[in-house]
Amino acid sequence: MAEFTGERVVPGQVAPDLWNEHISRYAFAARLAKGRRVLDAGCGTGYGSLQLAASAAHVLGVDLSGDAIDYARRHYAVPNLDFLQASCIRLPARDAAFELVTAFEVIEHLPDWIDFLQEMKRVTCPAGLFLVSTPNKAYYGASRGAAEANPYHVHEFEYADFQAVLQDLFTHVRMALQNHAGGIVFQPVATFTGAEAWMESGAGTPEEANFFLAICSSTTSIEIPTLVYIPRSANILREREEHVSRLTSELEDKDRWLQEALGERQKLVEMFRAQNQELEEKNRWAEQLDAQLGQARQRIADLQNELAEQQEAARRMATGYEEKVRELEADSRRHAEWALESERRLGAELEARTAELEAKCNELAECVRLLHRAEATVEERTAWAGKLGRQLREAEVLLAGVRASRWVKLGHAFGLGPKLEHD
Fold it and tell me: What's the CATH class of domain 16-186+200-233?
């Protein structure tokens, strides 16, 4: 179900007067739809397109709202009626495609309403008719009073403005007024055999009209007789009595609400008195706070004076400290200069000692080298001595053998052979 917002008409969800305002426009247009190709621009939920399709050759209902088109397709499925979701500013239709175009309560919702009118002229054939309606800005401005403007309306028209913009585009423009009118109806009970309407002349003026409805054409001038639309439940006195009954019920509700509000008012008065008493106590408390605040301010002034004296003493102390710091800095510079001089002197001595140490190291290295050479010589002599020792022991063994030999002894006895020394 499409949502009723107060602007888009959903059958069964609107008040009778609002429904009659909308459906009566299609009753007015239906007299011109017979056998024609019809476009219902801004068709909404499609109830008016269905009424046009009763006599038209074919009707196309177009609306930008997908919800409205879905509602129309579900509820109004007849062979010569189609619905399309599209913008009325850019219709997917060829030039001069329709013989009758209706656009009821659409133009005031569009910021680019001039483009809308040009598009309606494009799709209307030269001999066709364009029916367009809009609320009377002057009437609705006065009826709203201090209330805010309709948030759904972008541009509203007065009679002369509406007629002028249409005459700029169409050669023939006929203006009609749409109003709620009181009347007396005589009708048979059992059958309906048609109706005649009698209307006093001068019954309405553009300034007082609820709505304007214009019949526009590029080539055809047409005069439309007055239409009196009588809804099925058109007993105004009974409707007024029911309306009075509803107002009476609402008045009783408001009286009851007023009594409740008066009771709430008494509670509010008592609450106000209690709050007023509490406020007086808080005022007295505030006065005490003011007195304490004055004492605190005096104490602050005294502390500020003490602080100023302490700051002056601190300034003098700081001046003394600064002088002492300058003296310490001078001593520090002297000590630094002495340290630098000592560092230079010690550096020179260190370099001399380093050179002397290097010489001693070189001398020691030479001694070590000579010592290594002497050790090598000792080792060589030791090896040579060891070799001589072995040779000597071998000679001693040989000598002992010779001495023990009986041949040597025999030779000695005969004075032959070498003479060997005895131990």
Answer: alpha beta
| Residue 85 near residue 64, CB atoms below 8 Å | yes
> Domain coordinates of the chain in residue numbers?
16-186+200-233
Alpha carbon distance 339, 83 (integer Å):
107
C-alpha to C-alpha distances, 48 to 10, 56, 146, 284, nearest whole angstrom: 11, 12, 33, 74
Kindly tell me the number of DSSP H helices and DSSP E strands found in the chain: 8, 7
The per-residue pLDDT for range 28-85, each reduced to its tens digit, is 999 999 999 999 999 999 999 999 999 999 999 999 999 999 999 999 999 999 999 9
**What does the block give as tokens for 87?**
């913008």
Task: Kindly state the tokens that stand for 365.
Answer: 């290295």
* Coil vs helix vs strand at 112: coil
Beta-carbon contacts of residue 412 (< 8 Å; ≥ 6 apart) = 419
Contact yes or no for 125/99 (Cβ under 8 A) = yes
The distance of Cα 161 from the centroid of its chain, to the nearest Å, equals 42
Cβ atoms < 10 Å from Cβ of 47: 20
User: Phi then psi for 138, rounded to 5 degrees?
Assistant: -65, -45
